[in-house]
Amino acid sequence: MKKLIIGLTGPVASGKGTVKKYIEEKYGAKDCRFSTILRDVLVRIDVPIIRENLQKVSTTLRQLFGEDLLARVIAKDVLELNSEIVVVDGVRRLADIRYLKENKGFVLISIDADPQVRYERMVLRNENVGDDKKTFEQFLADHNAEADSEVPIVMKEARFTIENSGTLDELKIQVDKLIGEIRK
Fold it and tell me: Taking the model in full, what pTM does it have?
């Protein structure tokens, strides 16, 4: 069987990480995440992991070394992983899928949810320092940041879409259905 590479795109707190984790647990997938590279840099240089710093590192690296820098790294990492299924979390730019699309087993899935639901999830998970203190207006403003500005464009490129404003069980049912469809 050829390697299945599932790219996940969608706005902040839409459920990409939850879908990734579910596919790992149920289907034995391995994962690659664009933000892992950025988080590693911030940890190494002892700078707080906040959304603004992640965006600055991403922008700077791409400006210095090419818009497709992170995409090249992820595409290489995906091929080196010893797994029949690899989930790539955090696809935000068209450049991010350029190299992944060269693999015939690549499928892009868009995940979305109601903005209020996504905001509440972001506050609860507090993944980045200060997320739990953001207002709804600040959360919405983050969508206009350079790092997230192409997400709606990338979402239109997706072969499948998951609406994730419901329960975890409803999300899992959608994922199982998609995996079944993709494997046909």
Answer: 0.86
Residue 131: give the domain boundaries.
4-183
- The CATH number of whichever domain residue 16 belongs to comes to 3.40.50.300
Question: How many structural domains does the chain have?
Answer: 1
Q: What is the pLDDT of residues 49-83, one digit of tens each?
A: 988 899 899 999 999 999 889 999 999 999 899 99
- Give the CB-side neighbour count of residue 57, counting CA atoms within 13 A: 22
Structure tokens at 136: 């709804």
pLDDT digits (tens, 9 = 90+) for 128-140: 778 888 889 988 8
CB within 8 Å of 87: residues ≥ 6 apart? 6, 8, 19, 20, 23, 24, 29, 30, 31, 32
- For 74-91, letters b (16+ CB in 10 Å) and e give bbebbeeeebebbbbbbb
